[in-house]
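Let's sit down with a protein and look at its sequence and fold side by side. Once you have written the record down, we can walk along the chain together.
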Amino acid sequence: MSDSEILFIIFVCLCGGYLLGRAHAFVINILNDCYNENSLSEIENHLKVINNEIAAIIERVEKKS
């Protein structure tokens, strides 16, 4: 093998590794975004439940007064 062929193979391997790394980072980023969106919707649901409970307690206190 000539020097230019060896350099070409090294170049291809480096580019391939870089592209695999970028693809991995892209997938991880998308998965994190999906997880964060699910977490936010769960947090919003919990806040709604807490708000409803607080409203019920306030109504009970107002009825007793």
